[in-house]
Design goal:
Blueprint (H helix, E strand, L loop, with lengths): L9 H8 L4 E4 L1 H7 L3 H6 L6 E4 L3 E4 L1 H9 L11 H12 L7 H21 L4 H44 L21 H11 L8 E4 L1
Parallel strand pairs: 1-2, 3-4
Length: 213
């Protein structure tokens, strides 16, 4: 009479007013239901069966293409985003900007050019050295261009990964908490989408359902 039960004791009030054989709820709801078993026992109130409701992750065609473009698989989507980004860079960026073997070949080529020129005319050694410097500068410019291109491409990949996670886990939470069904029905076929969802859901299957268009 003196204290408002608010959300904490809502299950107790709910089962007193309208008893249930089974309560189906989300993971967050189930977590505080499980804390109240002792309260139900103290009140001699029947404690219902507890069932976690089905959770669905919906991947539309646009998002599916983004996932494929950055070479991710479904299992990757449930890893920490920082680990996914680190894996991507190690997998695709490390070798692309490594010019070690190329530099060795270039040095051999420059030495060969200088040797060839001086063999023909020893007085052209200074000229040969100057041309080798020009060649080095040209190759450095090429490498700089390649590094810039690789960096830009992977920056785009990092942004794509951010977009994928923002779409699938808005604000770090479950997609189903914010996704509106009508956003999946750009073609206006709401009934067919509902039927598809209905056929995909099994209330007694504890697995997390992923629907990929």
């Amino acid at each position: 009479e003196r204290f408002s039960p608010n959300v904490i004791l809502r299950p107790v009030y709910q089962e007193t007013i309208l008893p249930n054989l089974c309560y189906v709820g989300g993971i967050g709801e189930i977590s505080y239901w499980l804390q109240l078993k002792g309260v139900f026992d103290a009140l001699d109130l029947p404690y219902p069966l507890i069932q976690v409701r089905t959770s669905i992750l919906w991947i539309d065609p646009i998002l599916s293409k983004k996932i494929e473009k950055v070479s991710l698989v479904l299992e990757d989507l449930f890893k920490d985003i920082s680990k996914v980004k680190k894996w991507y860079l190690q997998e695709f960026a490390a070798d692309e900007v490594d010019f070690t073997s190329l530099d060795v070949k270039i040095d051999v080529l420059k030495d060969s050019i200088i040797d060839k020129i001086t063999q023909i005319d020893v007085n052209l050694e200074q000229y040969a050295q100057a041309e080798a410097v020009k060649l080095t500068k040209q190759l450095d410019a090429i490498k700089e261009k390649l590094v810039k291109t690789v960096k830009q491409r992977h920056d785009n990949a990092m942004k794509s990964i951010d977009q994928i996670y923002d779409k699938l886990f808005p604000n770090g939470g479950m997609q189903e908490r914010t996704l509106n069904l009508f956003s999946l029905c750009s073609d206006g076929k709401v009934a067919s989408k509902l039927e598809y969802l209905y056929s995909a859901i099994d209330p007694f299957d504890p697995d997390f359902i992923i629907i990929r268009e």
